[in-house]
Design a protein that fits this description.
Elements (H helix, E strand, L loop, with lengths): L1 H17 L3 H12 L4 H7 L9 H37 L18 H15 L3 E2 L5 E3 H4 L10 H5 L9 E3 L4 H10 L4 E10 L11 E11 L4 H16 L5 E8 L2 E10 L16 E10 L1 H6 L8 E8 H8 L13 H4 L3
Parallel strand pairs: 1-4
Antiparallel strand pairs: 2-3, 4-5, 5-9, 6-7, 7-8, 8-9
């Protein structure tokens, strides 16, 4: 029995000494000391040993186990030390090398222009309100005085989901929804993404952004509209910016107007930005049509209001002198980093 134990111990110690991986050490541990290991089998055979020899055999087994466990622990520490040394060599940091520069993101030019625009109107007491991009025909057209046979429906080339559901062509549905609630007075700004079936080119996209404003109260006149837009132009484009109203037609408003601002680049003298005219067309506006007020549950005999719509991409392109709208959406970092 003693010779058998010595042979088991010698073989185990030899394997331990020659092992260079932790997995090999674990294999030796399982083969010798595990539940089905060689030493365990010897202990199970103690019943066949004479009673007077059992203490000696037990001592031999414990000595062999202790020697093997000690060798396993020592070899494990040695292998771990070697692995740590190799790892430190691989991960050595040369502090003289330049560091890795972190690229810090920043706001998109569209977002910069939107926040600047919102800041002006919030300063005038406006509330920012948003609405759904998938809208009902009722809010996108009918309540805005655009019935089923109105030519404006064809002009806007709408994306229809069903007969009565569409991708909104403007953010005006938000205004209709707010008026329908009947909580007066109203002073809101409604920015958001809109959709029209346009071809992609330097000035058009099937998806773009609008910022529309609405004021409803007693005694609101065209003078209030002109004063509001003059204040916005001064703060957004710079002091001294002039505004010019030209008669126009929109179903939602009556009377309606297109608004030009004096060129903020040349001061009205004529340049590349204003194409030599000294003026830049900037937005559409007007007094809310009495029928729209009535359809939304507001008495046009008591209340009046004005509305305006600004193309966010348009003012962004103008403000930063960008000549192609597609640059805003191509995610070219060489372009975006300029802002």
């Amino acid at each position: 029995m003693k010779e058998k134990l010595e042979a088991i111990k010698a073989e185990a110690l030899s394997k331990i000494e020659n092992a260079h991986e932790l997995t090999l050490l674990n294999d030796v541990k399982v083969a010798v000391l595990g539940k089905k290991g060689e030493l365990t089998q010897v202990l199970k055979g103690m019943k066949d040993v004479a009673p007077e020899d059992r203490p000696k055999v037990g001592q031999f087994v414990n000595e062999a186990r202790a020697a093997i466990e000690s060798a396993l622990e020592a070899k494990s520490k040695e292998i771990n030390r070697e692995l740590r040394t190799e790892k430190m060599k691989r991960e050595t940091i040369d502090v003289t090398l330049p560091g890795v520069k972190k690229v810090i993101g920043h706001r998109h030019p569209n977002q910069i222009a939107l926040e600047d625009l919102e800041r002006v109107f919030i300063g005038m007491g406006y509330e920012i309100v948003e609405g759904p991009e998938v809208e009902y025909d009722k809010y996108n057209f009918e309540l805005l005085n655009i019935p089923a046979n109105h030519p404006a429906k064809d002009e806007q080339d709408t994306f229809y989901v069903t007969k009565d559901i569409l991708l909104r062509t403007q953010t005006s549905p938000v205004q209709a929804r707010i008026m329908e609630k009947g909580k007066l007075p109203i002073r809101i700004l409604s920015p958001g993404r809109v959709f029209r079936a346009d071809e992609v080119d330097a000035t058009h996209s099937p998806s773009f952004h609008q910022v529309e404003g609405l004021v409803i109260d007693k005694g609101i006149t065209m003078a209030d509209l002109k004063g509001t837009l003059q204040q916005w132009a001064n703060e957004f484009f710079g002091e001294g910016t002039k505004v010019k109203f030209r008669p126009h037609h929109f179903p939602f408003t009556e009377p309606s107007a297109e608004v030009d601002v004096s060129c903020f680049k040349c001061g009205g003298k004529g340049c590349r930005v204003c194409k030599g005219s000294g003026w830049i067309e900037i937005l559409g506006c007007g007094m809310v049509h009495p029928k729209v007020l009535k359809d939304c549950g507001i008495d046009p005999e008591v209340y009046s209001g004005f509305a305006f719509g600004i193309g966010l991409e348009r003012v962004t392109l103008l403000k930063y002198e960008i000549d192609d709208m597609r640059l805003l959406y191509e995610n070219d970092t060489r372009f975006l980093e300029q802002f």
